[in-house]
Amino acid sequence: MKALPRIDNYIFDLDGTLVDSAGDIIDCLNYAYSFIPELGHPKIEKTVIGPPVAGMAKRITPKINDKQIHIIVSKYRECYDKSDLPKTKLYSGVEMLLNKLSAKGSSLYLVTNKPILSTRHIINKFSIDKFNKIMSPDSIAGKNLNKVEMVSYLMDNHALNKKETIIVGDTESDVQAGKKNGIITAVVLGGYGTDKSLKKCQPDYIFNSLNDVEDLVI
């Protein structure tokens, strides 16, 4: 695999990239769906994870209406925000990679579709608060940012050089957010995107694990 170019700025996704949160997310989605029996008991796969809760609900039950989405989001948040997230695990290599990047003076950023409260919960749970800035949909009062907009905000407000900035994620939406902002894109396999969809969106780099990313850091 070719070596990474000089990169000063690393933008990381959270779910499926730094942490495996599928178990707790699926548990809380099942809890939320239990309040809408007319939707049945859909089988929830980890491949629906990535978008905000409303987006996941539309993936699970495409014919869901706005009222039902509101209930799903509300009940999901009720479950997730009170949970100690017992099934969420830090992926192997995360601490080593973040420590290495921090030690060499890289700027680290986090971009996630999780609300800031849930994001802080996970960061504190695993003691990985090494980020210069964390961006969530609700990071800016009065706005609901998507991932493209969150990356754009970082680029503009932190004056990041596009040629020296990479986004590392696990789904097609992470690659799209990077491409639309003109930065280097990388995905780590084993998260919530399928190998087929990730290869189809043509990221600049495809890694088997974060350990591979760490090996190429110069």
Q: State the helix count.
A: 9
State Rg.
Answer: 17 Å
Structural classification: alpha/beta
Overall pLDDT level: 94
CATH class of the largest domain: Alpha Beta
Order of helices and strands: EEHHHEHEHEHEHEHEH
- Give the CA-based shape: globular
The profile of the biggest β sheet is: 6 strands, parallel
Termini separation comes to 14 Å
CATH topology description of the largest domain: Rossmann fold
Describe the structure.
By secondary structure, the protein is of the alpha/beta class. The chain contains nine helices and eight strands. It folds into two domains: 140 residues, 3-Layer(aba) Sandwich (Rossmann fold), CATH 3.40.50; 61 residues, DNA polymerase, domain 1. Helix 4 packs parallel to helix 9. The longest helix has 17 residues. The radius of gyration is 17 Å and the shape is globular. The model has no long low-confidence stretch (mean pLDDT 94).
Question: What are the defining features of this structure?
Answer:
13% strand; DNA polymerase, domain 1; two-stranded antiparallel sheet; 8 strands; Rossmann fold; 6-stranded parallel β-sheet; 218 residues; alpha/beta; 9 helices
Short précis:
By secondary structure, the protein is α/β, with parallel strands linked by helices. It contains 9 helices and 8 strands.
